[in-house]
Amino acid sequence: xxxxxxxxxxxxxxxxxxxxxxxxxxxxxxxxxxxxxxxxxxxxxxxxxxxxxxxxxxxxxxxxxxxxxxxxxxxxxxxxxxxxxxxxxxxxxxxxxxxxxxxxxxxxxxxxxxxxxxxxxxxxxxxxxxxxxxxxxxxxxxxxxxxxxxxxxxxxxxxxxxxxxxxxxxxxxxxxxxxxxxxxxxxxxxxxxxxxxxxxxxxxxxxxxxxxxxxxxxxxxxxxxxxxxxxxxxxxxxxxxxxxxxxxxxxxxxxxxxxxxxxxxxxxxxxxxxxxxxxx
Length: 280
Prior knowledge:
The protein has one domain (10-277): NAD(P)-binding Rossmann-like Domain (Rossmann fold, 3-Layer(aba) Sandwich), CATH 3.40.50. 44% of the residues lie in helices and 12% in strands. It contains 10 helices and 8 strands. The protein has helices at residues 19-30, 42-52, 64-77, 104-119, 121-126, 159-180, 205-212, 216-219, 223-236, 263-277, and strands at 10-13, 34-39, 57-58, 83-86, 130-135, 186-192, 245-248, 251-252. Strands 3-2-1-4-5-6-7-8 form an 8-stranded mixed beta sheet, with helices on both faces. Helix 1 crosses helix 9 (223-236), helix 3 (64-77) runs parallel beside helix 4 (104-119) and helix 4 packs parallel to helix 6. The relative contact order is 0.14.
């Protein structure tokens, strides 16, 4: 039964095959939203799509053509998009490049959602006012964006730094949307959901080992607790007061890497990302 708090709103949740994306999708649907879900595993995504009442949208963010096809499918299904939850991501071994040739943390966590969001700009604008929520992390503090070497062609990519850098990029991308799309009524926000005990890190042997150990229950919060900040922001909607801000769970203005407010980084990352995905 719906409580109606999201009635009339259309939502797209990426990374909805399991974890906080799946939980957020189910909760938002229970509150009246029309929720579309995407993930890379059709077998895991299908029951989530059935639970929210829509057809699954399968896409692997390590393949940018999948992202382009996903955007086409979303545009076919919806004329307007009230909330986009850019939640897909993880931590990956940097040495295993994507089929597109990119460092995987950079592509899956930043470049793919950057492309998807840009391709859905018209649907976000058609809502009149809309919200983009980018799932970031406290790990942004250990990131370092090098604009002339985003893909680690000239330096060694260490896994935790590469992951932290991609999460810093989520915040920087949020600031870029706030600066560029306000006339379209698009509000953007980044959020650290907390250390969630889900399948995060499944593509990394080292992180996966830690998350599968008995210590996991002491170091992490539940999936429902991790999804709660995303749901709260989606319900809050496109409030100009939160535009361009980074939340640490429910608290605005969480701790950020100093690059997150560097205008040259905000502008430079947007421009280089546009070029890499063929938007410029």
